[in-house]
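#struct-help
A.M.: can someone run this one for me? Single chain, 140 residues.
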Amino acid sequence: MVKLIVGSKGSGKTKKLIQMVNDAAKVSKGNVVCIEKGDSLKFDLNYNIRLIDIKEYSVKGSDAYYGFVAGLLAGNYDITDIFGDATFKILCGKDSKDFELLADFVQKLDALTKESSVNIRLTVSCDESDLPERIREFMM
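D.P.: on it. Structure tokens below:
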């Protein structure tokens, strides 16, 4: 299952994500993974959480990000939750937003999660009204 934490810049998405990641780690019977661009969350997350700085792996673009997530799941069947921060920065670059690219990415991830019981939650910096209709069902 994929869920999107949507809001404009400065609306508290990352703070909400941190709380959700730490809560998931308390109840998970497997592994919890958090993907971000940089390492600013390292002091906010429980030490049991696998924090991944996506920059270390040169992942840029939706196909690379999808492949990275699929590879995580293929290599570790014990992952129960994946959280991702700054989704547009990873998919499109620093100041770019491609809503159709995001929609395609979310739908591919959703199809991937149907094969497993993993929960994926991503922060998306935009107004809810900017999202294409086809992915509004994924909003939290």
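A.M.: thanks! The chain has four helices and five strands.
D.P.: also worth noting: The radius of gyration is 14 Å.
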